[in-house]
């Protein structure tokens, strides 16, 4: 009987630990992906506000490097003290993603700018119901929609552009925008070019 109780206790403990690990992994992936809404949420019927038009600010004189992706056909400049990491998360909806990041004082990467090439249906429904303020923005001659909203009480910005059979989401979110990296986001956005 004692052995049976030990086996049940071990099984229950293992299942609880596995469940916590799965939940933590999903939460971490959601945070890294910076996808504001789960794909499983029902699509709300609230439409975004009527767009206004804006243009991307001019670049600054900070020393930069150029990131070029010949497979998907785009490039941009970013401050030379930052790091680019590709495919930092996996998702059915994301065909390619990267983050431009910096090291914080605690030795962790924090994202300043994200590029996410996604399926059309993901881009079309991601910002529904977010309460976003929208505007039309032109990036390298391509017209897109800029979404400004809050996620988990932190301000975020995303620019969605048509990209052949996909859409590209260029974004800054959460603590990066809150801690003043919006100028870096604008610099990268102003230098973003399509090569195809």
State the helix count: 4
* Unreliable segments of 5+ consecutive residues: 14-60
Strand content: 35-45%
Please, what is the average pLDDT? 74
- State the total count of DSSP E strands: 11
Number of domains: 2
How is the CATH topology of the largest domain named? Protein Transport Mog1p, Chain A
Please outline the major beta sheet: 8 strands, mixed
The oligomeric status of these chains comes to: single chain
Give the % helix. 25-40%
| CATH class descriptor of the largest domain | Alpha Beta
Provide the spatial order of strands within the biggest beta sheet.
Answer: 1-7-8-9-10-6-5-4
- Cα Rg: 20 Å
Distance between the termini: 70 Å
Helix-strand topology string: HEEEEEEHEEEEHHE
Tell me what you see in this structure:
The protein folds into two domains: 1-33; 36-194, Protein Transport Mog1p, Chain A, CATH 3.40.1000. The protein contains four helices and eleven strands. The protein has helices at residues 2-33, 120-126, 174-178, 182-191; strands at 52-55, 64-69, 74-79, 83-86, 94-103, 109-119, 133-139, 142-151, 154-163, 166-172, 193-194. Residues 14-60 have low confidence and may be disordered.
């Amino acid at each position: 009987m004692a052995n049976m109780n030990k086996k049940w206790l071990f099984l229950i403990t293992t299942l609880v630990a596995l469940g916590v690990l799965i939940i933590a992994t999903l939460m971490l992936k959601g945070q890294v992906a910076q996808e504001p809404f789960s794909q499983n949420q029902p699509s709300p019927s609230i439409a975004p506000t009527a767009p206004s038009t804006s243009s991307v600010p001019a670049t600054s004189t900070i020393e930069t490097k150029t990131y070029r992706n010949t497979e998907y056909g785009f490039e941009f400049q970013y401050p030379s003290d930052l790091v680019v990491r590709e495919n930092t998360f996996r998702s059915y909806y994301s065909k390619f993603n990267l983050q431009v990041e910096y090291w914080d004082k605690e030795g962790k990467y924090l994202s300043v700018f994200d590029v996410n090439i996604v399926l059309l249906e993901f881009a079309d429904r991601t910002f529904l119901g977010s309460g976003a303020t929208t505007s039309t923005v032109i990036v390298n001659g391509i017209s897109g929609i800029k979404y400004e909203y809050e996620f988990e009480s932190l301000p975020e910005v995303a620019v969605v552009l048509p990209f052949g059979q996909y859409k590209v989401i260029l974004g800054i979110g959460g603590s990066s925008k809150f801690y003043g990296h919006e100028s870096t986001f604008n610099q990268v956005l102003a230098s973003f070019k399509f090569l195809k």
